[in-house]
Specification:
Shape of chain B: elongated
Number of strands of chain B: 9
Strand content of chain A: 5-15%
Helix content of chain B: 25-40%
Distance between the termini of chain B: 42 Å
Largest sheet of chain B: 9 strands, mixed
Oligomer: heterodimer
Number of helices of chain B: 2
Strand content of chain B: 35-45%
Number of strands of chain A: 5
Radius of gyration of chain A: 33 Å
Chain lengths: 312, 139
């Protein structure tokens, strides 16, 4: 059984940890608020761009050749060279946040490609460690942090990926990220960004009908426009996923810290109860000792008196 | 007579920059500037780094520096989507100058083609920023 001092030390150490978890909770909630605003700002751009790509691609003449208009249909699914952009966080203490991401990514890589012909672009320290320790080959020069997502980083990332895509290193590109379903729950998503599904859908859908209502002039050329907006879209998408992952990370950390705080409070309650019981037991024991000591003295005195009386 | 206007939306990753009626917009294109007036025909334009000028419904001029993007004109509505849009007075000239120097250095280093293009794009962005913010005598 622990003695009083040990319990007291434990309580104070829990209190100290609680100060840290409390501070982390506050920091996370602050960061989350900022990141959420950023996310809300990018939304209109993102939707407008999506609509624009769909519109342009269904008005584009059939004879236009462009890398972004090609599809990977000619290659069987398992044989396609796949690139994965995996977004994790740099730090732990965020519950199962990172594990969910890497698990889903790992599953997809193992199943769809039998571990060949893949390329990993991992953002965040956690993911890099995880995949290196499993022996996956990850892109060495791709080093980006998950902290404070900004446009420059998204631009760099999309330039790297688009370059590999243009050079034919990759046939398909997926992003694995965590999206905020609502303010409480987030879920891991895997999405294909290249080749773009919206282009394919738009082109397939509108080729059947003899759509004739509006005719666009493309200046300088349809190819130039596609080359301009698709990288923008990819950058925007990557920026959005970076921000969303950051939001989810902060959210996960907030919840983890909240749980830690709750657990700490209940632990402290339990320990304080134990401490009080111990203290009470010690006091009782002391009183018992004093009382019994006094009683023993009294009895000794009585015996002495009796003896004295008897000898008289 | 009332001035003819069109509906204009200018958006970037950082949010909506302009949303309302406008009388004219001048866009930086590959071979020079392209002005769009109300009731323009249907058109999709590619936009490159440069200066964009909006004349709003009361005739005030709004200058801004834009990045790569595109514009779509249909039914007297113009939607401009660019990766960045800034007012000249918001541009941090020191930051742009640093970016330019960095890009110049990177281009000198005989890197891969990809790095070369990235540096070139960064350089173009920095140069347009510097060029157009100097019009305001902030230097």
């Amino acid at each position: 059984m622990a003695n009083i001092k040990e319990i007291r030390d434990r309580i104070s150490s829990i209190r100290d940890t609680m100060k840290i978890t409390n501070a982390m909770y506050m920091i996370s909630s602050n960061k989350l608020r900022k990141a959420k605003k950023q996310l809300a700002d990018t939304e209109p751009y993102f939707y407008a761009l999506q609509a624009m790509i769909a519109r342009v691609s269904r008005h584009i003449p059939d004879d236009v050749e462009d890398i972004f208009l090609q599809t990977a249909e000619g290659i069987p699914f398992h044989a396609r060279a796949k690139g994965y952009l995996i977004l994790t966080s740099d730090k732990g203490l965020a519950g199962a946040f990172n594990h969910n991401v890497v698990k889903l990514a790992e599953e997809h890589i193992r199943e769809s490609n039998k571990l060949v012909n893949y390329k990993l672009y991992v953002v965040g320290e956690f993911g890099r460690h995880y995949f290196t320790s499993l022996g996956f080959k990850i892109e060495e020069n791709f080093r980006y942090t998950a902290q404070n997502p900004n446009l420059d980083r998204a631009r760099d990332i999309s330039a790297t990926i688009l370059d590999d895509y243009r050079n034919g290193v990759l046939d398909e590109v997926y992003v694995v990220y965590t999206s905020m379903k609502n303010s409480l729950t987030s879920e891991v998503k895997i999405e294909k960004i290249l080749p773009l599904d919206i282009i394919e859908n738009a082109r397939n859908r509108y080729r059947i009908i003899d759509a004739y209502n509006e005719e666009f002039i493309f200046d300088p050329s349809p190819k130039a426009i596609i080359d301009n907006i698709v990288p923008n879209f990819i950058t925007g998408f990557i920026f959005g996923t970076l921000v969303e992952t950051f939001c989810s990370e902060q959210n996960a950390r907030m919840m983890a810290m909240d749980n830690a705080n709750k657990n700490a409070t209940s632990m402290i309650g339990e320990l304080v109860k134990q401490y009080n019981r111990k203290r009470q037991a010690a006091i009782t024991q002391e009183i018992t000792e004093v009382v019994s000591g006094a009683k023993a003295l009294k009895r000794a005195k009585e015996i002495k008196q009796r003896k004295n009386r008897a000898s008289k | 007579m009332e001035r003819k206007t069109f509906n204009l939306q200018v958006m970037s990753i950082n949010g909506i920059f302009y949303n309302g009626r406008a009388a004219e917009i001048i866009l930086p294109c590959i071979d020079g500037e392209y002005a769009i007036l109300p009731e323009h025909e249907e058109l999709v334009l590619a936009i490159y780094n440069g200066k964009m000028t909006i004349r709003d419904e009361i005739g005030d001029k709004i200058d801004c520096i834009v990045g790569v993007g595109s514009a779509q004109i249909a039914n007297n509505r113009v939607i401009v989507i660019v990766d960045t849009v800034e007012k000249p007075e918001d541009i941090d000239r020191n930051r742009a100058r640093r970016a330019l120097e960095r890009a110049e250095e990177e281009m000198r280093q005989n890197n891969s083609i990809k790095e070369y293009y990235t540096a070139q794009a960064a350089m173009a962005r920095a140069l347009t920023r510097l060029k157009h913010s100097s019009d305001y005598g902030l230097d």
